[in-house]
Amino acid sequence: MTGAVLAVLVISGVLVTNEYYTMMLRNGGSESWTDATFRLNAYIGNAPSKSVVCMDWGILDSLRFLSRGALPLRLADDRISKPELTAEDREIVAKILSDTGNLYIAHTREAQVFPANERFLKLAAESGYRRESMAVIADSFGRPTFEVYRLAASH
């Protein structure tokens, strides 16, 4: 009896695992766990920049691991996401904006975890900067996952 119950449980577990495996092969992973990170790492490794500012969750640590710490990575300041910015917050954002050597990496709108990038771009526009898109990195299923951009002074 115990053997029959054990066999049913093992077979059930194998079938569930197979179902998830099939779905993963067909649909790919989630946006947070994407193979586009490998393409992003290769692109960023060849893009000259003073600092690479990661604008969303799940970008910095993956790139740090894949590049073995060789990329000049920074995480965008959490203050960017606050609904209301204090004068001190605005100074920090202004400092980030003013560094023209920065390269920014954000998830595309469909793949973003937190909307900090939209808020940051709004603050950049208010401060006289515009986004210059350099690349959109897709995963192996063709889904746009990352956007790489610089900021330039508006004319």
- The total number of structural domains is 2
Second CATH tier, the architecture of the largest domain: 3-Layer(aba) Sandwich
Low-confidence stretches: none
The Rg value, from CA coordinates, equals 20 Å
Average pLDDT value?
85
Biggest sheet overview: 5 strands, mixed
The CATH class of the largest domain is Alpha Beta
Q: Which fold name is given in CATH as the topology of the largest domain?
A: Rossmann fold
Total of DSSP H or I helical runs spanning 4+ residues: 5
Element-level helix/strand string = HHEHEHEHEE
The residue fraction in helices comes out at 40-55%
Shape: elongated
Give the strand content.
15-25%
Describe this structure in words.
There is one protein chain. With about 160 residues, the protein is α/β, with parallel strands linked by helices. The protein folds into two domains: about 1-30; about 30-155, Rossmann fold. About 45% of the residues lie in helices and about 20% in strands. It is built from five helices and five strands. It has helices at about 1-25, 35-45, 60-65, 85-100, 115-125; strands at about 50-55, 75, 100-105, 130-140, 145-155. It has a five-stranded mixed sheet. Helix 3 links the parallel strand 1 (about 50-55) and strand 2. The longest helix is centred in the first third of the chain and has 26 residues, at about 1-25.
